[in-house]
Design the sequence.
């Protein structure tokens, strides 16, 4: 279900690093040998076999990251991102797998469009990439896509991300039919008659600045509706980019009641609140919007207790000229692949809000589990999907050009701690 | 928690330019200085020759993306009274019609080296964008539902002139607060000078989170020294939005009529009025109405703002002496 260009399997020995794989229960100073892209040995001392040796004293070696929510903008807006540039950005961010959303132009709603993307990925993807296909044709919310053929062509899941499936009746039909493909539905939960025209969380900041409000309840009523339908139809759903405390509460209750539901949160929703909008910087405009501190804290608690199993960037590249406009005229979305680990390490792990183990789990094993992907792991016999992290080193975002074709990062100019020194994805060294 | 002002969003190099973008950027001292300067200019306008040489050789560009009578005419006249050259660009009939972006329009006008760009725009933050990409001093003449700082200043000027003080007064702001940049600017200005504000109107038009008392009861205007009536902004009311069931019902429940006012209560309105909707014509034309006084204040306050952003201080003795010579 994932595709990558052909690359040479690495022959390496990484030694001196703290090897940290929370899912395997490993946290020790170990050496790792990789033969032709496969982890061959993990031990206190491994035979170097004349391989290149990477001295990694003081670094952390962990399973590489999985991002279940990326916009590659291809086809249609190759000026903003391509399969090559988006996967290069992922490699730089420490990812060994990403999933791309289908809200392109044309929408990925047919086997032909999906097939062309798969071919592009085989030619140019730096890291393994998978594709979601749309739930409805053209994301118009009227007719279901041919999910059977799309699944056979390689769709990992189905989503109308960017737009909600507004009709409850159609959502029910989608749940019923998607069950025949054994693929989850990834849901953009937004009640359009409540969010209508809103740019900013409906709260004090929007009231003071005069922005049309996009209230939390516009998300949470849609989350409640879709979880109720998923429970009724025994469907599998994944709630994208959770932003509101009420939505998190709904997800927690549904999971406790046995609904096959998962959820994700983005770095920006975990670190920022709507207070950031006072800058009027279009690079803090996203959908769903940044919300209040209590929402941020609820998301954090859910990441800690596992209600939210995945951290997803919702990497959404936009052309510079489209963001160099007044806030209300700017499109929703920010980039995130190249900054996700560092910003979360700097603002959540360093201050002691989140453990490094939990962060690594939610950025790797969690999302892999949700979408049925092989879990990146540090054990002999598995493909090398590894990230080597320098937690002590500081850097300034934007000091080096982004690998992404777009630079609409909310972190431009910020100092962060934590550098991705090396990424192995699908057995090859894709970033160093 | 994170500094969001990024390198390419910082103003161009050199000392920071004086802009008037938001009342939120002003201190009480700024307000007092601006009102004092406006008062000086008002005195000068009583002379036979009304033109002052103060800003001779300066260029003031008025860039208007929304229709306006009061604001655009008073800015233009204010600049002329101070002997500045003026250039007015309206979005209709300009390259904006051809899809030119705000950034490019600002860069184009910026190439003429204007000293001040006065901008009105339907989107929040447009003046900040112009301030970033040009070297001009920028004055916000209204951006979306965000800010209209010169309106707030001229209202303070009017209240002080007509009521005699600011500190300790109570003003009821009635009507469509949600869509009103005037209300937002006034709330911040009132907080600076010690005026208590009560917001009155239908629930869907009163944002819950504003830092002011809010009530749906029109009787709440009874205790106010000044009743500030907001325009029911038809043009912002999309069909089917259902903020209120009908204008007729709005008028019946929240319209300002002589019967709802107490003796001695003063009435203000930023204009343009919908007579017979939010304000009864008898109120608008009564001696307690300060509406025409507001328009007169608009001229001298905008003179003060242009003067202040360019010189950074109150009108000096020299400036007035020069005026007498002229």
Sequence:
């Amino acid at each position: 279900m994932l595709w990558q260009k052909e690359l040479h399997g690495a022959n390496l020995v990484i030694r001196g690093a703290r090897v940290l794989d929370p899912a395997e229960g490993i946290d020790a100073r170990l050496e790792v040998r990789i033969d032709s892209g496969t982890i061959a040995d993990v031990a206190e001392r491994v035979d170097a076999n004349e391989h290149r040796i990477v001295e990694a004293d003081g670094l952390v070696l962990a399973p590489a990251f999985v991002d279940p929510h990326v916009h590659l903008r291809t086809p249609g807006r190759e000026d903003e991102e391509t399969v090559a540039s988006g996967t290069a950005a992922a490699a730089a961010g420490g990812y060994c797998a990403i999933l791309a959303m289908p809200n392109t132009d044309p929408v990925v709603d047919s086997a032909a469009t999906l097939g062309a993307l798969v071919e592009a990925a085989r030619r140019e993807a730096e890291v393994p990439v998978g594709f979601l296909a749309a739930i409805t044709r053209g994301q118009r919310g009227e007719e279901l896509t041919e999910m059977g053929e799309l699944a056979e062509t390689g769709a990992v899941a189905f989503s109308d991300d960017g737009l909600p499936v507004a009709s409850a009746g159609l959502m029910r039909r989608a749940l019923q039919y998607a069950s025949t493909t054994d693929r989850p539905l990834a849901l953009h939960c937004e009640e359009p008659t409540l969010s209508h025209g809103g740019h900013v969380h409906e709260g004090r900041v929007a009231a003071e600045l005069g922005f049309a409000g996009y209230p939390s309840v516009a998300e949470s009523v849609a989350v409640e509706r879709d979880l109720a339908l998923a429970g009724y139809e025994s469907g599998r759903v994944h709630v994208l980019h959770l932003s509101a405390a009420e939505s998190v509460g709904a997800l927690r209750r549904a999971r406790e009641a046995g609904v096959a539901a998962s959820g994700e949160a983005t770095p920006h929703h975990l670190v920022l609140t709507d207070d950031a909008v006072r800058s009027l910087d279009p690079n803090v405009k996203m959908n769903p919007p940044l919300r209040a501190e209590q929402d941020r804290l609820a998301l954090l608690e859910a990441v800690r207790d596992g209600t939210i199993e995945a951290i997803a960037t919702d990497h959404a590249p936009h052309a510079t000229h489209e963001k160099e406009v007044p806030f209300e005229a700017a499109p929703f979305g920010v980039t995130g692949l190249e900054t996700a680990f560092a910003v979360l390490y700097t603002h959540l792990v360093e201050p002691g809000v989140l453990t490094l183990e939990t962060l690594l789990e939610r950025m790797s094993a969690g999302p892999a589990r949700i979408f049925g992907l092989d879990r990146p792991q540090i054990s002999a016999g598995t493909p090398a999907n590894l990230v080597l992290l320098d937690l002590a080193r500081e850097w300034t975002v934007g000091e080096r050009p982004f690998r992404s074709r777009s630079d609409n990062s909310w972190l431009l100019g910020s100092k962060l701690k934590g550098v991705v020194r090396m990424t192995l994805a699908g057995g090859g060294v894709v970033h160093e | 928690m994170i500094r969001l002002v990024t390198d390419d969003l910082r103003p161009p190099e050199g000392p920071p330019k004086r802009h008037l973008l938001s009342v939120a950027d002003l201190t009480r001292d700024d307000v007092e200085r601006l009102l004092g300067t406006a008062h000086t200019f008002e005195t000068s306008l009583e002379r036979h020759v009304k033109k002052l040489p103060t800003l001779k050789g300066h260029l003031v560009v008025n860039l208007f993306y929304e229709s306006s009578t009061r604001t655009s005419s008073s800015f233009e006249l204010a600049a002329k009274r101070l002997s500045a050259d003026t250039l007015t660009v309206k979005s209709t009939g300009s390259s904006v019609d051809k899809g030119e972006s705000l950034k490019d329009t600002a860069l184009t006008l910026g190439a003429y080296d204007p000293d001040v760009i006065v901008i009105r725009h339907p989107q929040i933050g447009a003046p900040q964008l112009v301030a970033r990409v040009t070297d001009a001093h920028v004055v916000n003449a209204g951006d979306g539902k965000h800010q209209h700082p010169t309106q707030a200043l001229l209202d303070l000027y009017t209240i002080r002139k007509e009521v005699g003080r600011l500190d300790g007064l109570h003003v009821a702001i009635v009507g469509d607060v949600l869509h009103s940049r005037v209300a937002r600017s006034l709330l911040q200005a009132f907080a600076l000078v010690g005026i208590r504000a009560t917001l009155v109107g239908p629930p869907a038009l009163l944002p819950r989170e504003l830092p002011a008392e809010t009530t749906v009861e029109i009787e709440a205007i009874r205790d106010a020294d000044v009743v500030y009536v907001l325009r029911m902004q038809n043009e912002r009311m999309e069909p089917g939005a259902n903020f209120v069931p009908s204008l007729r019902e709005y008028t019946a429940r929240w319209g300002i009529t002589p019967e709802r006012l107490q003796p001695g209560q003063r009435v203000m309105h930023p204009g343009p009025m919908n007579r017979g909707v939010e304000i009864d014509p008898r109120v608008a034309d009564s001696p307690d109405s300060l509406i025409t006084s507001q328009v007169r204040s608009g001229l001298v306050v905008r003179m003060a703002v242009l003067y202040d952003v360019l010189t950074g201080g109150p009108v000096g003795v020299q400036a007035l002496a020069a005026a007498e010579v002229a």
User: Anything to note?
Assistant: Strands of chain B lie at 59-64, 85-90, 116-121, 137-143, 170-174, 196-200, 213-215, 226-229, 266-268. Chain B has ten helices and nine strands. The longest strand of chain B covers residues 137-143.
